[in-house]
Amino acid sequence: MHTKKKSFMDNLEETMIAVILGLMTMITFANVVLRYTIGTNFGNYLKENFGINGGLIWGLETTSILFSWLVLFGMSYCIKITAHLGVDSLTNLFRAAMRRKIAMLATAISIVYAFLLLKAGYDFYANFANLPATTGKWFPSGFEEMRATSYRGWYEMERVPMLDWLRFIEPAMNEGETYDKLPRFIPYFILPFGAALLLYRLVQVFAGLARGTRDTLIVSHEAEDDVKEAAAKAAQEA
Predict the structure, then answer these.
(1) Which of 3, 31, 187, 229 has the fewest CB atoms inside 10 Å of its own CB, making it the most exposed?
(2) Paired sense of beta strands 142-143 and 156-161, if any
(3) Please, which residues have CB within 8 angstroms of residue 208's CB and are 6 or more apart in sequence?
(4) Within a 10 A sphere around the Cβ of 48, how many other Cβ atoms?
(5) Residue 18 burial (CB < 10 Å; 0-12/13-18/19+)?
(6) What pLDDT was estimated at residue 137?
(7) Helix 190-211 to helix 96-126 angle, to the nearest 10 degrees?
(8) Residue 96, C-beta contacts closer than 8 angstroms, at least 6 positions apart
(9) CA 106 to CA 8: how far, in whole Å?
(10) Cα 201 vs. chain centroid, distance in angstroms?
(11) What is the 3-state secondary structure of the chain?
């Protein structure tokens, strides 16, 4: 039996979530270890040769960025695997065909929400990426005219250092000036990208509901199963 090879988009969230969790763990673990080296010979060596004094000064800000990426990737991932919790007490009163139509309606509303989130995310990101923001209050009607004051790619993070292998972006984004810290448009890219990925997964769900290959947008019995498991465990202990 031949298994269907997964595409890049099929594995995107799982891969990124695994990488982000790994990086967060390593950075946090390193900071904990370094905190206990203060006053030791190893700690003095790190301070004199690398300027590290009891921890990575950029560690907290980096883990905060990574956590934001984790949340936004997790948002679309839970749509893909039907892990978002919901209440189906009302929809269960209807027949299966009607439940599927209700799920399609809920998904359509979610698609509109994701589109609005994408517009807001892009407009916020454009402020840091030398890009024109969209016009229109709710739905984009065009792009704003770029002025000299609109180019703000020079905004930097507070503590995260600039990576040398990214310096090729300086001529295009910072008029050739060097970055001391990581420019904000790099970590902020997750805002429009995460919203676009959410929109993509919701469209996939809607298509699955329309074809009949998917029954629902949400999972509704996880909490119920946990309650039953807790009750059974309590009964055993009693």
Answers:
(1) 3
(2) unpaired
(3) 214
(4) 10
(5) exposed
(6) 85
(7) 160
(8) 215
(9) 28
(10) 13
(11) CCCCCCCHHHHHHHHHHHHHHHHHHHHHHHHHHHHCCCCCHHHHHHHHHHCCCCCCCCHHHHHHHHHHHHHHHHHHHHHHCCCCECCCCCHHHCCHHHHHHHHHHHHHHHHHHHHHHHHHHHHHHHCCCCCCCEECCCCCCEECCCCHHHCCCCCEEEEEECCHHHHHHHHHHCCCCCCCEEECCCHHHHHHHHHHHHHHHHHHHHHHHHHCCCCCCCECCHHHHHHHHHHHHHHHHC
What is the H or E stretch that residue 182 is in? Answer: strand 181-183
Q: Say how far apart CA 21 and CA 216 lie, in whole Å.
A: 29
pLDDT 10s per residue in the chain (238 long)?
445 667 777 788 999 999 999 999 999 999 988 888 877 887 777 778 777 777 788 999 999 999 999 999 999 999 988 887 777 777 778 787 888 888 899 999 999 999 999 999 999 999 899 999 899 888 888 888 877 666 788 899 999 999 999 999 999 888 889 999 999 999 999 999 999 999 999 999 999 989 988 888 877 655 555 556 666 777 777 6
Q: Which residue has the tokens 């269907």?
A: 4
Residues 181, 186: Cα–Cα separation, whole Å: 11
Q: Contact 110/231 with Cβ under 8 angstroms?
A: no
